[in-house]
Amino acid sequence: MLKEFKEFAMKGNLVDIAVGFVMGAAFKQVVTSFTGGIVSPLIGLIFNSDFNDLKYVITPGTLDDAGNLTGEIAVLYGEFLTNVIDFIIVAFVMFMVVKGVNRMKKKEEPAPEAPKGPSQEELLAEIRDLLKK
Q1: How far apart are the C-alpha atoms of 15 and 20, rounded to whole Å?
Q2: If DSSP codes are grouped into helix, strand and coil, which group holds residue 119?
Q3: What is the Cα–Cα distance from 88 to 81, expressed in whole angstroms?
Q4: What is the CATH number of domain 2-104?
Q5: Of these four, 22, 69, 78, 95, which has the most CB atoms within 10 Å of its CB?
Q6: What is the pLDDT of residues 53-111, one digit of tens each?
Q7: DSSP helix/strand/coil, 62
Q8: Other C-beta atoms within 10 Å of 89: how many?
Q9: In the chain, at which residue ranges do the beta strands (DSSP E only) sit?
Q10: 113 to each of 26, 116, 117, how far by Cα in Å?
Q11: 57 CB contacts (<8 Å, ≥6 apart)?
Q12: Over residues 35-46, mean pLDDT
């Protein structure tokens, strides 16, 4: 059982998927940093606030003695928009990577045509007829 597991784990496709997963997770961190540190502040200039802090307050909260806001109910659309921008960046880069890989792959040569002549059924019928004689 251990040998079978080792063969399964070392298959090329599984290792490629694992490497891709790790690279994707690292790339996601880069994109999140880019969006949070560069894109969000630039878009925040338009709204005169931090883009991640944009929200629509449904029920205002109250401040407790420590100065913490409690009981506020709000729709955090700034954080959602930041995540959408992250997704669009990741999707675009993945599209470009797949497009580049597909371009680098060798074009598969078409399968050679079947040889001209009698078909397999015709040959079998001919053999059958010869055996009857």
Answers
A1: 9
A2: coil
A3: 10
A4: 1.10.1200.120
A5: 78
A6: 778 888 887 777 777 777 778 888 888 888 888 888 888 888 888 888 788 876 666 77
A7: strand
A8: 18
A9: 56-59, 62-63, 69-70, 73-75
A10: 47, 8, 12
A11: 72, 73, 74
A12: 79
Distances (CA, A) of 55 to 60, 65, 77, 80: 12, 24, 5, 10
Buried b (16+ CB within 10 A) or exposed e, 37-58: eebbeebbeeeeeebbebeeee
How far the first Cα of the chain sits from its last, in Å, is 56
Mean pLDDT, the chain, integer:
80
Domain ranges of the chain: 2-104
Structure token pair of residue 112: 């050679």
- Write out the two tokens for 33: 């940093």
Q: Which two tokens stand for residue 1?
A: 């059982």
Which one has a higher pLDDT value, 111 or 34? 34
Mean pLDDT of 24-48: 81
Strands 73-75 and 56-59: antiparallel
